[in-house]
# Entry
Amino acid sequence: MTTDLFQLVLNGLLLGGVYALISIGLTLIFGVLEIINFAHGEFLMLAMYATFWLFQLYGVDPYLSIVIILPVFFLIGLSIQRITIQPVLNSPPLNQIFTTIGLSLILQNVALFFFKADYRTVKTSYSDLGLNFAGLIISFPRMVAFILAMGFIGALLIYLKTTYTGMAIRALAQERRASMLMGIDVYKTYRIAFGIGIACVGAAGSILMPIYFVFPTVGSLFVLIAFVVVILGGYNSLIGSLFGGLIIGIIEGFSGFFISPHLKEAVYFIIFIFILLFKPTGLLGRK
Amino acid sequence: MTHYGDVRALQNVSFRVEEGQVVSIIGSNGSGKSTTLNTISGVLRCSSGSILFNEEKIDQAFPHQIVDAGIVQVPEGRRLFPYMTVYENLKLGSFNSRGRKTLKESIQEVFGYFPILQERRNQIAGTLSGGEQQMLAIGRGLMAKPKLLMLDEPSLGLAPLVVEQVFETIKRINLQKITILLVEQDVFQALALANWAYVLENGSIMMEGGAEDLQNNPQVKEAYIGV
Amino acid sequence: MTAIEKEFPPKSKAISGMIGLALLAVIALPLFIKNEFYLDLIVMIFFWATLAGAWNILGGFAGQISLGHTAYFGIGAYTSTLLYLNFSLSPWIGMLAGVGLSVLVAFVVGYPCFRLSSHFFALATIAFAEVLRMLSAYWRGLTKGGLGLLVPFKPGFEYFMFNNKLAYAYIALTFMLLMIFVTWAIKRSRFGFYLISLREDQDGAESLGVNTHRCKTVALIISVVFTSVMGTFYAQYFQFIDPEICFSISLSIQLALLSIIGGLGTLLGPVMGAFLLTPIDVLLRGWLGGVFAGLNLIVYGAILIVAVMYFPIGVGGWLKIRWERLLRDRMVTPPIPLKMGMASSLLPSISPGGDKTDELPLLRVRSFGKHFGGLHAVRNLSFHINRGEIVGLIGPNGAGKTTIFNLISGFYSADSGEMEFQRERITGLAPPHKVCRKGIARTFQIVKPFNNMSLLENIMVGVFCRIKDPWESRKEALRIIDFVGLGRHQFSQASSLTIADRKRLELARALATKPDLLLLDEVVAGLTPKETTGLMSIIKSISARGVTVLMIEHVMKAVMTLSSRIIVIHHGEKIAEGTPAEVGENKAVIDAYLGKGFRRGK
# Structure
């Protein structure tokens, strides 16, 4: 019995790495641009489809396709920001909310139109591979997913800490006026931050493809989880998203065991609402 | 002329700053001192008039372009990056292309002016004392390798002794051939340091003159306190 | 009184006539449609119009963007259906039960969410609706989960099911007309003004006595009632419900979309949106079928983005502006000249016989302290204000003056110290609307009129603090408008005013709440000397009529001329107090403003 529990928790933890990667993109966008990207999940979905088609049509291994997906999605992020988000950055929140919602609607249904509603999966030689470790079976794709996700998050954090542009992004999130006065091009930095956020979720899509299946509304599923992670970890803390993702993964494992696997989503939604109402800054967030 | 939102913040404000000088703008609250600096920095747009820097028009430029041109502002209230360390704040100061090339030397220079910053180089900026924060803010401004350094009320919220120190340092900076435009509420310090001063009241220049002359002028006091 | 009688332009009779005709046309319309397809279309139009209108009350008027309204739709649908299936309870009663449950849920979940900022509020509402969707999908014992519930067809009024679609059309029409009526009633009532004011500027509304939290809650409940009712209607019309239909986020988005396109916060905007978009939607689906599934949503998404970027006011909003311009052009009568008798309405709520030189102070502050993090904004501050005085509050930048105002008016709570007003302890009285009702009004340093209201309406929000009836309130507001000299602008949008006029409006608005103590925050900042003089004379008149004034000012000439007494604040502490002349010579004051060395330099 306990091995089952540990198994579920382990699986959850590994998946939690991917949650963290998706959420960190959201947190970055919210921290810098101060908008909630309601279309975040749709970018995940698009990345998953891209990975799927690259595999299906050209036999590109999903993990290898990250090499293409990452820069492409970065550019997509830059363009979308400039075209749809930039114009409403100074508008009331209503406009901002509906811009990304409109985007979400469009992307979802474009996918529905072109790809149909069928579930697609990627089956590689290692899809079912499992490693045995102390009596627990670690699914190979999940392990790779975890390692890659952590790797990307680590790279992102280092980038933000050491490079000029990365520091500019952090600066802009903390203190806008001074950033301007230090010679930081605010609009360019907004674009880059958004681009990075989308690139993150793009990479997450590729990583996720071997362990999950894609359909046009898969984004909604994951983005809601991402929202919970962001709020749990602290809406302006990147490290918070990291830990939040892992914690949610573990909670998922637990609730899958103790409560019906179908209701596990309800569990973290209730957590979500509780945090919003009683501790809006989450675990590591600042006022 | 600058509109702040729809408030007519500045009206018909004209002044010049000669290279190598220290020019002070003094005036009571709400007179438009910060607005003036922010207009020069490009944060606010002036609705009429022009700004010339080294004979070049800069009034339509973006803030980051103004920094590139060599005008750097140390804003009112310091506005440090509160969750970053002293070192990171300074490094961000050198964001523009000129500054990046000279990162290492500039940091040494700043530590030269403010040894305490070197001691605290890994401390989070938000936890520094008021005086240390002001020093960091000035240091950050210097990292951008300015030709014209504008300071907005550096004495705000500081103890008198610290104010003395700060102004001492500003003098030293000026001796290094950096032009200073100083906006201050502390009239005495502002006039003690400056070559030339302008008095701003309710958005317009009320009088100007050599610092010596203004120091003994009872009209200045009236401008501030109204009696 | 002719100006007031001429409120409505002479053409109003013609306009009422037109509205009556339009109403008759709409009511008669279903009778003339024999084609099933088009009749169904009409039903759907009325259906969506009601739903969108319900959302508009909360989202458009109150400005609270809920993206989880589908939750209440689903509760309504499932409650009535389950009660009917399990207990043979008439769906009409089930509908009422659904409403009851929805309101309860709204109160429990929605009410605390109002504390959140817009983005997070929207997020919370989405999450909440999702929880309900999951619950209904997996609680198979109760709801049959994803299989959905079938309502077996049994025609009869008590079963809320009919053979003829015409009946459904009229029921939906009735609900729509009811919704329009409720919206109209809200719009012209005090509640409606309060909703719009809190949407425009919540702090400003609070300072004028609006209980924003309660207003939002009432708006939510009204909105939820209609949404729940239409949920039941849906169940009875389509006779099939499942979690995907009833708790779908697309429904929530659609409601918002219709309101935005039609015109947020307008009376008929959502209706227009429904009339415009529903046919397009139904026709698209009918023609293109399942092949092009989702195409309509792509179009919706694009429309949404374009709409919020370029046409945020929607069709209805555009029409509303045209209408108001029409009204304004008709107002050619001159403003009422101020007569002595009218001025009496501006006296504060104390009896006119109140002694102007009352012994005890009107306001007494003792040892106020307030810190933010480690910074002491206000420290050990004590002062008093006597009835009838004009007191100036001055001090260098960052001295803590606005903090003091925020403490007095209830926007901040003091960490230490106490405050007495009219001999009553009001320390820590919050939220700000309570302080306003006690008789303390304030203006704000950065003037923020309620932009989407006319000047008159702005002031009416203030008047509503003491007068509940809209007609009386309007009359009072007209008097105040003339008192401050803005008569010719009464129908102008607040956003089109010059800065000087906006300052007057801010003053008028605060004055409208009939305060005993008026706090003015830098009210002459940024004005030309001429404008300053004008405003100063208004302040003098206000004082002459018995209102005590405490003003923060930097424009020294103004404050020194007007005030009988000055209090000087520096670093959050009082450093001097006295007549303007005394304060002007005070050493500590000169040091604070000009720097310690200045006197030496003299």
Remarks:
- The beta strands of chain B are 2-4, 7-10, 22-26, 52-53, 56-57, 71-74, 148-152, 179-184, 196-201, 204-210.
